[in-house]
């Protein structure tokens, strides 16, 4: 979808939205297209005429337009793509959108969880996202689901009393609800592997998936009691015998430096005991495979240690390594949230006065963030794309204009590669490899892409004028 124009992309994602009237759907596609062209801009800046600004705000404020209907159009498009693939990684994660203007009056009575340096009126709109990735190519397919909520009031009672609440009334139920919603769209989940972090280490959630025949890979959080072998999880980790060792690259992120880690893997089938707090009809035990992935000989302050539960077969070291790689890809959903919130579409800068109005635009921006992430993913396939001509993505005139602008040299005899195209776009957008890691940020790529689009549009306009003068 990254090779489409903004208009084509918007029509593909939102052109089938059921908003009650066809003209509303057309307006949605136009608004999404304008916002995609100006991903980090306000609604006013993204709309280039007073008429467009007025139409955009009429759409945003229209109570008859359901935010969920906007989202369902995009989810359906992703679902159709998912059905065509042998294995898809459905990566779930939760983030919070923080606001501190008047919309906070509609977002409950609970302050933002992170109030450090923020005024007391700050509130959070939570979003639980599911990003679909092709397991074979590791390409981002699209956004498969999003669930929004806010905390109306604090949950009262002791920790034990809170744990005894019905599972369906807890926030943690969103993990299961997400799968149920995805299944309604896709029809089945046989080609989907659900990948979750430690927050999803929930006995009811894993039991539900196992009973329904779903596939999952969940990172362990609790020191659970095991029936087979007879020990707890921490004891199993301490006594685990390595079955293979290999080196992985840990990317630079936040305050963490990029490094290589020597990993020891062990794997075996285990049976988890049902926690005492769990009420209802859940199975008294849960049989899964476990993969212990850890740095045993490391000088790092926090050596890597992942404990992964899975329903996938783990018969060989190659099986275990493949599943660990799938879990490594979980950071992609964090990259999506970062792109959505701060590095791409700046969704937290919205200053709309009602929560539904914010939702309508936040959902559009979420799909734009996915598009930006897809563009960034392209730039990270450097070795593969050195062998592919850039004309698979852009027209001949487009790469020639980019060459003249970036290389400032005569055109080459051979069409340059995709590798050259991506990094030239980044340079056009102001990127410089200051950290020497070759990673291109979303903003630089997108700015380069937009600058190139303007150059192409100007060149095509000039050609059109010249042809008219000849006539």
UniProtKB/TrEMBL annotation:
<dbReference type="InterPro" id="IPR014735">
    <property type="entry name" value="Transposase_Tn5-like_N"/>
</dbReference>
<dbReference type="InterPro" id="IPR012337">
    <property type="entry name" value="RNaseH-like_sf"/>
</dbReference>
<protein>
    <submittedName>
        <fullName>IS4 family transposase</fullName>
    </submittedName>
</protein>
<dbReference type="Pfam" id="PF01609">
    <property type="entry name" value="DDE_Tnp_1"/>
</dbReference>
<dbReference type="InterPro" id="IPR047768">
    <property type="entry name" value="Tn5p-like"/>
</dbReference>
<feature type="domain" description="Transposase Tn5-like N-terminal">
    <location>
        <begin position="7"/>
        <end position="65"/>
    </location>
</feature>
<dbReference type="InterPro" id="IPR002559">
    <property type="entry name" value="Transposase_11"/>
</dbReference>
<dbReference type="InterPro" id="IPR054836">
    <property type="entry name" value="Tn5_transposase"/>
</dbReference>
<dbReference type="Pfam" id="PF14706">
    <property type="entry name" value="Tnp_DNA_bind"/>
</dbReference>
<feature type="domain" description="Transposase IS4-like">
    <location>
        <begin position="175"/>
        <end position="366"/>
    </location>
</feature>
<dbReference type="InterPro" id="IPR014737">
    <property type="entry name" value="Transposase_Tn5-like_C"/>
</dbReference>
<dbReference type="InterPro" id="IPR038215">
    <property type="entry name" value="TN5-like_N_sf"/>
</dbReference>
